[in-house]
Amino acid sequence: MNSDSDLQIAGDILEVTHLLQTPREHPATVAEFVGLARSIAEDRSQWEHLVRYDATTRWYHRLRTGPGYEVWLLSWVPGQGSGLHDHGRSSGVLTVLDGTLTERTERGTRALRAGAQRVFAPGYVHEVVNDALEPAVSLHVYHPGLTDMPMHTAPHCEARALPGAVTA
Length: 168
Prior knowledge:
The protein is mainly beta. 11% of the residues lie in helices and 30% in strands.
């Protein structure tokens, strides 16, 4: 059995420039939207100076737009939440930049810490809340751009009442 790994044999794949795909100016696939969100998250200089906290309502700022997509920056003080909703015909990527947010769905409850990402398709119903004692910041990429955010009532999604809800 050979103990050499592919990395030891080939070296750092990122150094083999002819194998890398040229990044598109504007993302078009789920993987590219996730990559866009990760690259923005990693470069705090793109967003940190823009963040504001508002005790009366969730603060939001459209950070970027491109053909068929939008990138939004949101802040959440303790206790603020989105309410139970979906995103109409838009798919999305939610990335937590700072703090911890709680996502509730009909399948359970999940803690999303800084660096966590959630990808969702049209019709995905959830509620996002800052249940922590510290503020949080999140990044949201929508494709196509968000034009509708239908609100739902608790009977459609009873995540709060699930016994033994999953926490990640």
